[in-house]
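REQUEST FORM: STRUCTURE PREDICTION
Request ID: SP-0412
Submitted by: Lab K.M.
Chain count: 1
Length (residues): 62
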Amino acid sequence: MLPLLLFLHVGGESGNEINKVKKRGPPVQIASGRGFPIMLLAPQNPHKKRLRDDTVVMLLLD
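STATUS: Completed
RESULT:
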């Protein structure tokens, strides 16, 4: 079983264009072949407003 990495992007990558999430961080490392053997969950916040809520994060992990 692979470990799960939950990657929460920065505010500038919010919206509905998933390619924005692939610009930096773990998605870039994995795409370039330099990543570790992990399962990556990189949800995109569709809202322009910051989404910093522990409840939302826990729901993603549940």
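NOTES: The radius of gyration is 12 Å.
Reviewed by: T.R.
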